[in-house]
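Milestone 3.1: sequence recovery, worked example.
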């Protein structure tokens, strides 16, 4: 199976602002992308607490993104909560020629 599980180009790296999230859709999947000190992180945009599409609006603090609704925190690298529990899904990111690519596996093929 190839093609559908490859990286998708989402934007030019200059479109991402340091420390501020941006929302993208890859097929049916909604992701929040952050640039922190020249590193790019892609996580699910859906907060697992109340399924709000809010993570891209969250503030970033010490490597964690904070949901703007009730303050749940998730590690941008692992997606985990501060106590190490499962939180947000994370996605692989790569940069090519200053464009950002994110690898999203469609849920129905994720088996
Ligand atoms: S909806 Fe995100 S913390 Fe409640």
């Amino acid at each position: 199976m190839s093609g559908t599980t490859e990286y998708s180009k989402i934007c030019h790296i200059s479109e991402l602002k340091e420390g501020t999230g941006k929302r993208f859709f890859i097929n049916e999947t909604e992701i929040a992308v952050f640039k922190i000190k020249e590193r790019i992180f892609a996580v699910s945009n859906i907060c697992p607490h109340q399924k709000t599409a809010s993570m891209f609006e969250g503030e970033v603090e010490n490597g964690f993104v904070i949901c703007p609704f009730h303050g749940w925190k998730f590690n941008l690298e692992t997606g985990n909560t501060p106590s190490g529990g499962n939180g947000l899904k994370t996605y692989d990111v790569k940069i090519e020629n200053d464009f950002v690519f994110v690898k999203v596996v469609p849920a129905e093929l994720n088996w």
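The chain has one domain: 7-109. The longest strand covers residues 29-36.
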